[in-house]
Amino acid sequence: GLGWRLRRHFFVPPPGTPPTWYRFFVWAGFGYPIGAAGHGFFIWLLFTINQPALAWFNVGSALLYLGCIVGHRRGYFRLCYGAAAVEILVHATLATAYMGWDAGFTYHDLICVVAVMFAPFLSNRMKMATCAGIALLLAATFVYTRTVAPWRPPAEDAILILQSVNLLLFTLILAVAAY
Questions:
Q1: 33: closest CA among 68, 7, 58?
Q2: CA–CA separation, 119 vs 99, rounded Å?
Q3: Out of 37-41, 110-114, 122-126, 147-151, which region has the weakest mean confidence (pLDDT)?
Q4: In this structure, what are the phi and psi dihedrals at residue 84, rounded to the nearest 5 degrees?
Q5: Which of 65, 69, 107, 138 is deepest in the core (most CB within 10 A)?
Q6: What confidence score (pLDDT) does residue 77 get?
Q7: Least confident of 24-33, 41-50, 95-104, 131-140
């Protein structure tokens, strides 16, 4: 039934998955659907607050995460991980430049730090280097947003909504990581 299929989706890795990858498998198995649903919600929200360019970007992101759901179940862990990580970092940086730091899109860069630490296929040296790169990206984005005006700033009430939704999604991903 549906209960078994959901349990298998989230907790039973494909054959041949190393046992040391189990925690990553579970976390990513929850993370990709959250990513797809979150981007789906943002499509509606961004059209509602008159940010059509970012709404259309979210269509592509939602499709990418749907592909990651399927690929993850089929054992394409590195491919899905890499695609999602690049999507998060590029998307969060562009959205921040587009609407400003206060919209809260930089929280998603921090999700990549958690993802890096969960990745069993990265060496410790690569994990530390990647986290340092993410920290530099965040610092550069912060400095950029303090010296250059947002490309298309939303209304102040939209900023509050965006900040709240981004914080909610970030907290949800952290809760799944701690599970």
A1: 68
A2: 31
A3: 110-114
A4: -65, -40
A5: 65
A6: 95
A7: 24-33
The owner of tokens 């701690």 is 178
| Residue 76, both tokens | 């394409």
The mean pLDDT of 105-126, rounded to a whole number, is 94
**HEC readout, the chain:** CHHHHHHHHHHCCCCCCCHHHHHHHHHHHHHHHHHHHHHHHHHHHHHHCCCHHHHHHHHHHHHHHHHHHHHHHCCCHHHHHHHHHHHHHHHHHHHHHHHCHHHCCCHHHHHHHHHHHHCCCCCHHHHHHHHHHHHHHHHHHHHHHHHCCCCCCCCHHHHHHHHHHHHHHHHHHHHHHHC
Four-residue CA torsion sign, 141, 145, 149, 151? positive
pLDDT over threshold 80, residue 3: no
Mean pLDDT for 22-36 is 92
CA atoms within 13 A of residue 83's CA, in its CB half-sphere: 20
